[in-house]
User: Which sequence fits this backbone?
DNA sequence: TTCTTACATTATAATTGTTATAATTAATTT
DNA sequence: AAATTAATTATAACAATTATAATGTAAGAA
């Protein structure tokens, strides 16, 4: 609940209106510990907001991203997934069922420094994903 | 040239037919040191193969990916980019102009091990991208 | 070689995720 | 409350990719 309150404060501070739809999308993102797609959010809120447009979901996710509340994750060819930003973390992804698990790892700043040094880029950030099979899928695989 | 030859051998070994189109796509991927999109490849080979279909490009890129010759890179919302696999490396990407520079970093196996340990996943591989501004774009930015 | 079968390519249509547009509605400022 | 600004809706457009069906091509069997 604290997260939601803080997020709403962030919106207020940046002059973004807090509409019922935005509230609902944010709340869903925070509560669902998964990393939903825009369509999943849309479908999940269909009950509460029968008239809400998909465009609204996309629009608001973009707004949240611009404000820094939400990260857009784009894997493979499927649709983008959205992650409420808490602390910096990485994702471990099951190539079989698509499950995404958060994973913390401290020391990758060094990589940024080295990359900056080698390429001359002004490095801002990085992302990393680890791929494999989740325990459930791994146990089902043929050996 | 050696790379192309080896790639063709790989195709032969895996029973994939080497058609003129496949040869051309592979050659283009290897020679262009960039990371072209399917459409760029399509347009680049238009001269040589006026009748080639976009589907052929996509089909063959998929075949190459399945055989392990090519990696598909999917960033943001733009179109996928394709990278001929040589040695394992990471990408440094300019958020302004989209330029992609290769970058080597040895010690990220440890991350895989830790991830596996913490999440119980059977980890297969990982990817990492570093984002920032390339020297050219950085120098143009307002300070 | 010719026949047969399996695979590739082509052209086109369909699909999917996302964005743009215009009209309507709601919220904030004056 | 009136005026202004922003948000939502419904719909159309778009772009990247994939599926489909027809045609073409190559490799192995007869």
Assistant:
């Amino acid at each position: 609940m604290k997260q939601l309150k803080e997020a709403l404060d962030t919106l207020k501070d940046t002059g973004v209106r807090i509409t019922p739809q935005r509230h609902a999308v944010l709340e869903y993102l925070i509560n669902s510990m998964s990393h939903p797609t825009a369509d999943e959010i849309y479908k999940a809120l269909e009950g509460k907001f029968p008239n809400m447009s998909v465009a609204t979901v996309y629009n608001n996710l973009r707004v949240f991203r611009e404000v820094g509340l939400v990260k857009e994750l784009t894997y493979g060819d499927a649709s983008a997934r959205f992650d409420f930003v808490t602390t910096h973390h990485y994702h471990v992804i099951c190539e079989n069922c698509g499950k995404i698990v958060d994973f913390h790892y401290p020391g990758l700043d060094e990589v940024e420094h080295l990359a900056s040094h080698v390429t001359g880029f002004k490095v801002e950030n990085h992302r990393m994903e680890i791929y494999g099979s989740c325990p459930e899928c791994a146990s089902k695989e043929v050996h």
Notes: Strands of chain B lie at 70-73, 81-84, 90-94, 100-103, 122-133.
